[in-house]
Structures
1.
Amino acid sequence: MDPDSRREMIVRAALPLVIEHGSAVTTRQVARAADIGEGTIFRVFADKAELLDACVTEALSPDHALAELALVSMDQPLAARLTEAASALQAHLDRVGAVLGALHATGGRGRSGRPGSPVGTPDRAAGSLPVREALVEIFEPERESLRLSPEQAALIFLGLLFAGTGMPPAGGGSADASPQWGVRDLVDVFLHGVLPQPVRI
């Protein structure tokens, strides 16, 4: 196995452990999960901190979410396309939050090198430009019927997705009991607003 493939395999094995244990995860645990000798880890990573940074980089990467967005069928109505897109992006943000949250809670080293420093931002976590461009493609078939351009709509939708994280579900309930706003609720509010009837301003 070449070094890049070995790094990728080790990071894949380490990510669930980082989510579970944060920075307290040991290289022995990672080696056991990857079914390799502990020394193999240090052939491709200088130390555990470098391995943790690689895990953060992988968590922040939007590649998997972009692959999911590319699979959204454009034959569906816009609401269905946006629901699939929001689900893919929410899953990505959940993983980012789980990794960064676990590291932060255990005093993990951020990329700044300061203990407990946060790593990444929501904009970086969602992949920024590539994700916005993928969302623009989802809006594109409705370009002529939209009040905004697909570019503007994609930016607002992405912002609403970030804002929706941690909001209580529609119809009441506490944020503690259900920390994520349902993607169907998000899409419905995005497309139809919060009032039962449109209001001219």
2.
Amino acid sequence: MTEVTPQMITELYSSTAITVGIMLAAAGFGSAVGWALICAKYLEGIARQPEMRPQLMVQMLFSGGLVEAFPMIVLGMAMWFVFANPFIGAVKSAIGG
């Protein structure tokens, strides 16, 4: 069994920080692309049938709310990795302390 060094714990924290940054960036980018597609289709729908504008707006805002839920879920997961990192607990139990 290999001995766990402080350097290994430091590398684990830094890897977790980089991973959390990538997770949040991907969620933000995905949300932005989702909003762009929703708004583009909303404008296309209005251009085709202007009388459907109120109904299309309701659907656009509902779909946008669903798109915005995804980054909030990812943010919650990211905060879990930052503040209650399960990998650190595994390393500390391997150390024996």
